[in-house]
Design brief:
- InterPro entries: Aldolase_TIM, FBA_II, Fruct_bisP_bact.
- One of its GO terms (cellular component) is cytosol.
- It catalyses: beta-D-fructose 1,6-bisphosphate = D-glyceraldehyde 3-phosphate + dihydroxyacetone phosphate.
- The chain is of the alpha/beta class.
- It has a single domain, classed as TIM Barrel, CATH 3.20.20.70.
- Helix content is 50%, strand content 14%.
- The protein has 14 helices and ten strands.
- The protein is globular.
- The relative contact order is 0.15.
Length: 357
């Protein structure tokens, strides 16, 4: 099976942390961008993660329907069918950036759906879901995360949380680029106290270290990847000093290289290779990739249209060229362009050529 089972997904994440690499998590908005991402993973010989955002889930259901749950379920079923044609790689499906106002109409219904699947002995449609409580006070963020972690355990899925704000704009949500973009080592300890370190349900944590969504010129984004190392060390030290529950101490002691958290890197578009490498060295196992692959896909379309403008348009009363305005012609170029960018992401993160056997 090439869709990750819960056990296979756990192995993927643990292997990345132990091996010092990370998986690109590619945001997709259509079956076509899904196919491009799968092509890229296969070309790179890399396992990977495919994810849909809150806006992407609604978009997948069409303009008339605009139902995030329906769009997510339909997409996941299609994805399962297509991933089965890539036997050399393992792929996990993920829902990305569920803010508080979308919980009841998106992730909670999906978790309930997947709990029902688990009761029937089936694997979950999605392998992980993200709760983005970064706009809430930390204690409230973690209170909801605790509830969702319990639901995730019952659904046989992994939870992802975010602590600290990511700047920039995504799906209509924006945040300023300022000091609030940096989590603290104390935040890490608070997360471990509230959620454990995997023994009460597996989760990934996106602590912020200056991350910004979108695309910016050099110098705008001030990343501090060393902050992730400080958060990991502070949590491991708290466990060693008996400041965390006994079960969490055991998990921290067993964590490879003193990295108790499975970390996620958000807002990485335009980051320098050395910043990415440093973040991965501190335990990042998943890096979201959206802006760059969006551009790669659209650039393929734009290139085709500019070169063939008099064929895709009926200029001066002519008839154009059906073979050039057929969506399959420019769609193939867009898929190839996006797939190449996915291969690049796999190489930068070190997952290329390391697909699980």
């Amino acid at each position: 099976m090439t869709v990750a089972t819960p056990e296979r997904y756990a192995l993927m994440l643990d292997s990345a942390r132990r091996g010092g690499y990370a998986y690109p998590a590619i945001n997709v908005t259509s079956t076509q961008t899904l196919n491009a991402a799968l092509q890229g993973f296969a070309d790179a010989g890399s396992d990977g993660i495919i994810q849909v955002s809150v806006g992407g889930a609604a978009y997948l259901s069409g303009r008339r329907v605009q139902d995030r749950v329906a769009g997510s379920i339909a997409f996941a079923r299609f994805a399962h069918e297509m991933i089965a044609h890539y036997p050399s790689i393992t792929v996990a499906l993920h829902t990305d950036h569920c803010a508080p106002q979308y919980l009841d109409e998106w992730v909670r219904p999906l978790l309930a759906y997947e709990k029902g699947q688990a009761a029937r002995g089936e694997g979950p449609l999605f392998q992980s879901h993200m709760w983005d409580g970064s706009t809430l006070p930390l204690d409230e963020n973690l209170r909801v995360a605790r509830e969702l972690l319990d639901a995730s355990l019952a659904a046989h899925t992994v939870l992802e949380i975010e602590v600290g704000a990511v700047g920039g704009e995504e799906d209509g949500h924006s945040a300023a680029i300022d000091e609030r973009l940096y989590s603290s080592p104390a935040d890490g300890v608070a997360v471990a106290r509230a959620l454990g370190l995997g023994e009460e349900g597996r989760y990934m944590a996106a602590f912020t270290f200056g991350n910004v969504h979108g695309s910016y010129k050099p110098g705008v984004v001030k990343l501090r990847p060393d902050l992730l190392g400080r958060i990991q060390r502070a949590t491991a030290d708290a466990a060693a000093q008996g400041k965390l529950p006994d079960c969490t101490v055991r998990q921290a002691d067993a964590a490879p290289g003193g990295k108790p958290f499975l970390l996620v890197f958000h807002g990485g578009s335009g980051s320098r290779p050395e910043e990415i490498a440093q973040a991965v060295s501190h335990g990042v196992v998943k890096m979201n990739v959206d802006t760059d692959t969006q551009y790669a896909f659209t650039r393929g379309v734009a290139g085709h249209m500019f070169v063939n403008y008099d064929k895709v348009l009926k200029v001066d009363g002519e008839v154009g060229a059906k073979s050039e305005y057929d969506p399959r012609s420019w769609g193939r170029e867009a898929e190839d362009s996006m797939a190449a960018r996915v291969v690049e992401a796999c190489r930068r993160l070190g997952s290329a050529g390391r697909a699980l056997k």
